[in-house]
Amino acid sequence: MTALLPDFYARDVLDVARELIGCCVEFNGAAGIIVETEAYHEREPACHAYIGLTPRTRTLFGPPGRAYVYRSYGIHALLNAVCEPTGVGAAVLIRALEPEVGLEAMRERRWRSRGMPKRRPSDSELCSGPGKLTEALGIGLELNGTDLSAGAVRILSMAERRPSSILSGPRVGITKAVNLPWRFWIGDNPYVSRPRTATAAIVPSSS
């Protein structure tokens, strides 16, 4: 496995969002295959960059291939990959992973973060959402702006895990630009978050 280089991300955010499906996120002795993503671009109001350059959005307008990590609803740190050329605000949200390495450590982090509930998360629940996966891997706000090819969090190419087709549909948990079909996922994968209502099927490019 080799890390995806900045040139991979310096392209249309929709292309990157589709082609990240099947790649691997690695951090802190744990790793998982990306099975679901969402694209965000400054031209639409659901993207943080829509309001322009601020201290919070600075990373979004920076070099492609950096991690944009922010706090959602004051609770979860969410992991995004910055895309398109420097100066354009765009990113792909990593929405769900299929756990591959370090599952016991993931279970422990998820279990303890919830005040040690009686039941530990099942494998399919470990990373089936953007807040769950950062919790499972231990990804926090301190990783905002780090290099996804050479930093602590890396996204790796996994050609053998590339799906033959993916589904697309509206993004989840937003109130603006809700009809854009900018969410992508592997349709038959049990690790994908809900809901799973698709509007189209896509054959990824071979690039």
Describe the structure.
Helix 3 packs across helix 4. The relative contact order is 0.24. The protein has 207 residues and is an alpha+beta fold. The two termini are 16 Å apart. Helices cover 14% and strands 26% of the residues. The longest helix has 11 residues. It is built from four helices and nine strands, in the order H-H-E-E-E-E-E-H-H-E-E-E-E. Strand 4 and strand 5 form a beta hairpin. It has a single domain, classed as 3-methyladenine DNA Glycosylase, Chain A (Roll). The model has no long low-confidence stretch (mean pLDDT 91).
Helical run tally: 4
Whole-number mean pLDDT = 91
Q: Can you say what the CATH homologous superfamily is? A: Methylpurine-DNA glycosylase (MPG)
Q: From the 3D coordinates, which CATH architecture would you assign?
A: Roll
Number of domains: 1
Offer a quick outline of the entry.
The chain is 14% helix and 26% strand.
Secondary-structure topology with pairs:
Elements: H1 6-9, H2 13-19, E1 24-27, E2 30-41, E3 67-72, E4 76-82, E5 90-101, H3 103-113, H4 130-137, E6 154-156, E7 166-169, E8 183-185, E9 200-202
Antiparallel strand pairs: 1-2, 1-6, 2-5, 2-8, 3-4, 4-5, 7-8, 7-9
Helix pairs in contact: 3-4
Name a few traits of the molecule:
single chain; 207 residues; alpha+beta; 3-methyladenine DNA Glycosylase, Chain A; 9-stranded antiparallel sheet; 4 helices; 14% helix; globular
